[in-house]
Design brief:
The chain is built from four helices and six strands. By secondary structure, it is of the alpha+beta class. The strands form two sheets. A four-stranded antiparallel beta sheet has the order 3-4-6-5, with helices on one face. A two-stranded antiparallel sheet has the order 1-2. Strand 5 and strand 6 form a beta hairpin.
Amino acid sequence: MEDEVMFCLEVTEEKMDSALKHLESEYKKMRAGKADPHMLDGISVDYYGTLTPLSQVANINTPDPRTIAIQPWEKQMVDPIEKAILAANIGLTPMNNGELIRINIPILTEERRKMLVKQVKNEGENTKVGVRNSRKEANDTIKKLKKDGLAEDSAKGAEDDIQKLTDKYVEKVEQLVELKEKEIMTI
């Protein structure tokens, strides 16, 4: 029985950790007024008939805080990359000089910053819901184990451990939200 409780705790922590990692990846894609190569994550390019992630057909870097430079490994990929960025509809306009694609990141307006902060808080809240759902699943598992003969004290201890995990991950989510909010509001 104790092994099943430990397994339940490990699975719960993995689920909570994956929810946190998902939030981090979503925040990397959000524009905070400065250039970040992760803003282009999720963009796929038609590479000889196969949809391939942009990062696998070009070198992406930030020569300055407001510019993303995309250097394709093959010159003929410049146009398909430019089309893929436009088709992704992420609000960025690529400029193509035949060899290199540059994307200038515009300064965010106050109104846009506030909208992004709302989006950041919403994503954070969704992640907290995911963490709490993991807690509920774990508590349900512990209740089933209790019916199957797990000692009352062990069940209570496991539920306490699950709550501590939940508190820890909710705190981490709140810290991420706060950091991203500060990053967006900093001009």
